[in-house]
Known about the structure:
The chain is α+β, with helices and mostly antiparallel strands. The chain is built from three helices and 16 strands.
Amino acid sequence: MEKYTWADPPGESAFPIAxxxxxxxxxxxxxxxxxxxxxxxxxxxxxxxxxxxxxxFFRDPDRLIPNEEKGIVSPADGRVLxxxxxxxxxxxxxxxxxxxxxxxxxxxxxxxxPVAGSVKRVIYNPGHFFRANLDKASRENEHNAIVLDHAGHxxxxxxxxxxxxxxxxCGIKPGDQVIQGQRFGMICFGSRLDVYLPxxxxxxxxxxxxxxAGSTVIxxxx
Length: 222
């Protein structure tokens, strides 16, 4: 068995950009050009900086996925906030192992499926925009939850908007069959992602660890 696999075909660009970023990048480049032609140097520099940052934020690097039989890969780049068992949650029944990952504006924000399976539910809930690293963000912020059937186990991962984030993108729907490590969406400008796993899953990360979507194994299924 190969040690790594491609969930998505590798791109042909040396610096791949997520499609959601193109309108902002084009708008920034257009404004930069207009300001430069009109002689507004300070404004042209500001729009140029905005365009460069937007390219950086919407970067979408290819990722090789570890081919481990029971491995669960991180759905997001960022820093692990918490690893703990919760007695209940709004998405799957009973107790669950919860792993929370905080994404700063400097992290890649493209999200990937932590496991393969069949999508049972996609639950969108409007809410507040508290800082994503706060505990109450899991409960009260705007979020989008995906519940999968993975080999008879329910697995849930939740995209949570943050203080600056105002747009959650999700490209999957109930009934879809998804591949581990495959891109499924993103959250714009700083956010959080919570993963709920069956009790008995073995975590392989600790609070404070840095993780990378699709390439870091955060746990093993029971």
